[in-house]
Structure prediction request, 249 residues.
Amino acid sequence: MARPFVAVEVARSSARRLLGGRKREAGAAVESLLARASRVTQVSQADVNEACVALGVDSPSRVGKEFKSLYRRYLHYCFEDRQLSVDESVELAHLQLILGLSSSDAAGVQDDVAISVYGSAVAEVLEDLRIDLEEAEFLARLREELRLPASKAERILKDGQFEARGRARHQAMSIDDTFVQQRSSAGDFTGRSTTSVEGAINDALSKASLATPQLHWFEVTQISGYVDNGVASQWFVILRAGIDGDDQG
Prediction:
């Protein structure tokens, strides 16, 4: 995994510069410290204080927004593999300390990241619109790892299922542009089979191919059949077939 922090050169601010600009520069300076260290625990609170003071910010606590962003990025980085190791937990605790984040600030960031990570996992699991036992166990473990309340996890899952069904309906109802574009119909053809719908389709296509050897596409417009003792015994289809518009002329 790529490290989440980037080292940049930060020039010292003028004492007269607006506080907002100095706070952003202090955030960038501390990010550079973290980027150059192989471990978060190698950066001390004194290092952070010194970087802030050098840029005209007398306390790390005044760089709240920028420091919360750094904490959020590192937490996302830790959860890229969907689990939090003991070592990562130690690094996160140290990062919270040196950035001067309060427990409530850290908890707020953790809650946001947990919702984001769990939501992404749910979306991946629901790509096939189903959740098997292994996937359910994975989501349960992830919820515990993220310390996400069951009520929030259930809400995310329901939202994910709703969105997945919406995507499935859209895909099912969408017309493939590459299929319908510039088609030319050769006519409607009937087919019959005593074994399957596929057999009836192939029967109709064999007739259509005699009339138009260069057939390129077909669509079934009607399916019917006979029933014998509650089971389909014969299938009849009507299909429209034709050539690609580019083949004309």
The chain has nine helices and three strands. Residues 78 and 84 are 6 Å apart (CA to CA). The two ends are 56 Å apart (CA to CA).
